[in-house]
Design brief:
The complex is a heterodimer.
Chain A: E1 9-15, E2 23-28, E3 47-50, H1 51-69, E4 75-81, E5 85-87, H2 98-108, H3 123-134, H4 138-147, E6 157-164, H5 169-191, E7 201-210, E8 221-225, E9 230-238, H6 241-254, E10 257-268, E11 276-286, H7 291-296, E12 304-307, E13 312-318, E14 332-337, E15 339-340, H8 346-356, E16 361-364, E17 370-377, E18 380-386, H9 412-421, E19 424-426, H10 439-450, H11 470-476, H12 483-501, H13 520-536, H14 543-555, H15 559-576, H16 581-594, H17 596-609, H18 611-617, H19 648-663, H20 668-671, H21 682-686
Chain B: E1 3-8, E2 16-17, E3 25-26, H1 27-45, E4 51-56, E5 60-67, H2 70-78, H3 88-103, E6 109-115, H4 126-131, E7 150-159, H5 160-165, H6 168-178, E8 183-188, H7 194-208, E9 212-218, E10 221-228, E11 250-258, H8 259-262, E12 269-275, H9 294-305, H10 309-320, E13 322-329, E14 332-340, E15 346-352, E16 369-371, H11 409-423, H12 430-446, H13 450-465, H14 473-489, H15 509-513, H16 515-518
Parallel strand pairs in B: 1-4, 1-6, 6-7, 7-8, 9-11
Antiparallel strand pairs in B: 2-3, 4-5, 9-10, 10-12, 11-13, 12-15, 13-14, 14-15
Classes of the chains: A alpha/beta, B alpha/beta.
Chain lengths: 698, 520
Amino acid sequence: MRMFSVSHKTVFVVDHCPYMTESSRQQIECDMLTKSRAQGVIPLAPVSKSLWTCAVECSMEYCRILYDIYPTRKLVNYIVSDSEFHILNSWRQEDQSVQELMTALAAVGPPNPREDPECCSILHGLVAAVESLCKITEYQHEARTALVDLADRVANRGRIICLTNAKSDTHVRMLEDCVLETIQEQNKLAAGSDRLMPIQQCELVLVHIYPQGDDTLVSDRPKKEISSVLSSEVHSVRAGRHLASKLNVLVQQHFDLASTTITNIPMKEEQHANTSANYDVELLHHRDAHMEFIKSGDLHMAGSTSRDSGLKETVTLKWCTPRTNSVELHYCTGAYRISPVEVNSRPSSCLTNFLLNGIFTFTPSEIIVISHMLSCHGGEIFLHMLNSTRSTLEDPPSISEGCGGRVTDYRITDFGEFMRENRLTPFADMSLDAAGRPPIERAKAQLERHTRYWPMIISQTTIFNMQAVVPLANLIVKDTMTEDDVLTCQKTVYNLVDMERKNDPLPISTVGSRGKGPKRDEQYRIMWNELETLVKTHVGTSERHQQVLECIIACRSKPPEEEERKKRGRKREDKEDKTEKNGKELEEKMWTQDSDRLKGAMEREKEDQSESEVIKDSPDSPEPFNKKPRLATEEIQPLEKSKGPVSLFSLWTNRITQANSRKHQEFAGRINSVNNKAELYQHLKDENGLVAFPCPVF
Amino acid sequence: MPTVVLMDASLSMTRPVSLEGSEEFQRKNLAVHGLTMLFEHMAMNYRLEFTALVAFSSLWELMVPFTRDYNALQEALSNLEDFDKTCLELALQGVSTIMQQEWGSACPCQLVLVTDGALGIGRGSLRHSLATLKQRGEDKKFPLPFPFPCKLYIMCISNAEELQTTDAMDNLEQLLILSGGEGQIFTMEGPLCLKSVQAMFGKLIEQAYMPFHAVLRCGHLTSDVQVFPRPEPVMIDEEVDPVPKHVLTELEIVGFIEIADIASPPVLSRHLVLPIAVNKEADEVGAGTTDEMEEDTSTNQMAGKSPNFCVLLHGSLKVEGMVALVQLGPDWYGMLYSQADSKKKSNLMMSLFEPGPEPLPWLGKVSQLGPISDAPENPYGEDDSKSPFPVQPKSKRSYAQNVTVWIKASGLQTDVQKILRNARKLPEKTQTFYKELNRLRKAALAFGFWELLKGVAELLERECTLLPDSAHPDAAFQLSHAAQQLKLASTGDSQYAAFEHNITPMLTDFSGGGGGSDRL
């Protein structure tokens, strides 16, 4: 594979001298009278194209096919030659289109028959062509700049296609000599220039065009090396149809193209909408699309037929309408742009319009094997080569048999959502962000941010199983957060606090733990810890991310600080009353063992209410227990209410309760209760807020 | 990449190896020993490779067709008989047939030729084959190069000095060049013994059968994986950029794309991506396959139970119908997707795109693909009803625009008829009439086909005279106006023959107040 092969640069040199106005003598009847109108009307005399018209339209057809199949990197420079040369376009990519050339050709117009033939010559054009080949293209420039020291590795080769009417074989040799001389001269010039490159290889293709019915004065000659830089071939062709098929063969040779005829394409006739006839359409494409046939020597099996000159072969593939509309990923080993041979024939345009509307089609070469697929991507039609041989990857071990294959609770849906958020989209060229990163780097950075904390399985996470956390989880991964985003995050946190206050159940996985799993306050502790972990990974991103973390720290219950508080309290009490040490120890033991759960819930509740209360409730400002008014209810006095020392009575009751509780299983309602009050039928509330009253059965 | 082991079973392989003070070995024993080592290695670390065993002498025989059953290969090897003389050409022919029958002509293959370097004498010898290379017809061509890409590893049960005393080494080197130059000739170093044959096969294993291990990464989510078959280095442009590109051992996911958007892209090769549990004690790793070996089973069961990113990724890709775009190296990308082998079994698969900044025209440059959150509005729409793909090319292809081609007379005739058909329906068809007229005018001007302009002008004038009495008066005006404009253009006068100029309908009293202008 060589980027700068001979086909990188093609110069067309078309003769614009007076003799090109001569008629090709191929007559076209363009007055096709319908039978009903035929009476009494004299039909118009047929028109015939001049040699110039023939040369121009065939060269345009060559370019059309070339541009269809190689929209970039294969460049054409178009030159016409009369008493001087006229360069119609440049090597620049934006000049490479048939429209561009047509506009320029219209401006040139047909040759002037009255011009002095002595002043006119194709030589002007050929010299200009060689000069043009020395000019560097943007692709060559790019490659040279990229390679710096190895810039000389970028080759400069090219092809000159000269459409002219030569006088004799001697004349042809004169033209070849002239080209060779010019190359030698220009190469010397180019050696000392930055914008020019010496030509390493040049292919001269001389096409001698003569009117139909004339005898040719120039003989055909296959390609021969004239010197190490120049090779030349001569084609002597009659104008019209013959010239067209010659240039069609040449464009295939020059650009490694091959032809495929798709047969039996069903098409509906406008007049007979309910019947369909079958048509064939011939397409050109890179010959690699036939690789499988060529290599296996199956070209003939696949229905190859040689036609016309014997030079041109086409592989016939049978049409087969797509079986499914479902989106499938086919194993495709190549995709090649196509160009219809007869672009404006009815079957061709019918097929291309069908494909441009985005409908897939398959074309099998045999009945069983589907070998190719025609598919349109953004206004371009490609022939996809499908793999039809046995796969070396058949019968692989299933993913469920390998590492991680036995795990069943992957967060498949969540990761699906993650993938949707991390889908890619094209950005305009050179769109860098503030940090100078191209889009793809930003995509990677986003993936990095989004995965800083991403548990893979459901049982590893609490927060990602909670609908309530979603707004925060979505926002915290952003690169930049707005003030509103921070507010939303804070609201999420408050909402969680509220949930905790209401003692809402959490979706904590019980996998791996026996029984009911961790207790409710432990669940919330796990949840807050996880939330903190998530947010902490993003704290460095910006000030606002930091704010979210601060909010969480401020709002959540803080087990480490509680410990701290207890320790402080213990020290103080130790100092106060050393004699009651034993009692204190007992009390503390009970405090931690029995009332931890209740205390946690209560304290958190209070923290939510107001900060001042937190201070008041702290062990630093103990309330004398005996001053507390006794309540007449059955309610057990929450221990923390009385902070400081505990009364003997409560110690006693606690002990009794504890002893009793070992003898029976605690009621679920009491476990989940707040202040010893359990809300009934909680689950019903969760369901659309509907409250139903089932009859108790006794 | 399937492997064919081509084993020399000629009589010369039974030559004894002189060893002091131990039991007598034949060269064949050494070869079998080396191959056993290779098969054992493959069974352990490369077990998804399909391998076939072919034995040859003056004839060849497929001992074991392509299989992953290394016990079967081993068994066939130990039952190998001795035959007559060496005839490599026929055997290579056989390999070519076997390969193509099984895998077609595009599948790359590795050929391990095990021989003692005695390459036959007279007709059928390698020397004779190579000498007559250029005197053959199409039907008797030398089998190398194979139609499929092939790496040729020649394992000589012989040392280099011995081979150089004859022309064997030269012939083998020529053979390697003929096959395309990919591969290597291995010879034994020092005395011919079990140790040196082990060393030689060890080198082969290192070069061709080491599993490719990589880390698959998506941000902070990672998984150790084996990529099978090993991704081969790729050459893009031998002239400008002659360095082969290697797939990095860090495969980084850059983003995700819908299957419909990636649209069956062409790929260089496909590979299984198998999660592996890296054993910290030894570098040996299980390829995540079903295990026969007991000690592996327990570690594999352990590995099966700890969550793996590959499994998560595979599951989500499958459910969502998406692919992950993965970076394989600088300016080189591929895609990860779920590939179903059957209804129950599916796998994480990786396909490699052609190296380069823009492997798929419909995606545009990969470096210009960015996160949707950077776009001013979600390019997929709020309800996933749109897609930013395919990227539209800068210019339209010829078949997507209304080009004019008159190479065949019928093309020109159709275009003229279209104008006449519309001319007869004036003024209703004024719009289409002028559109077709201008299209023809433009093409005629570009092709320098002024004669046609005159001809069509005459046709329009004639149409004018043929108008029935019932015709709308505007029709006559438009026809003669159009005819006159064409005639002016055919003079080449720059005022009228400008390419960009369009003939516009004549403003008449009828068209001004009536229907004509409405249709413009």
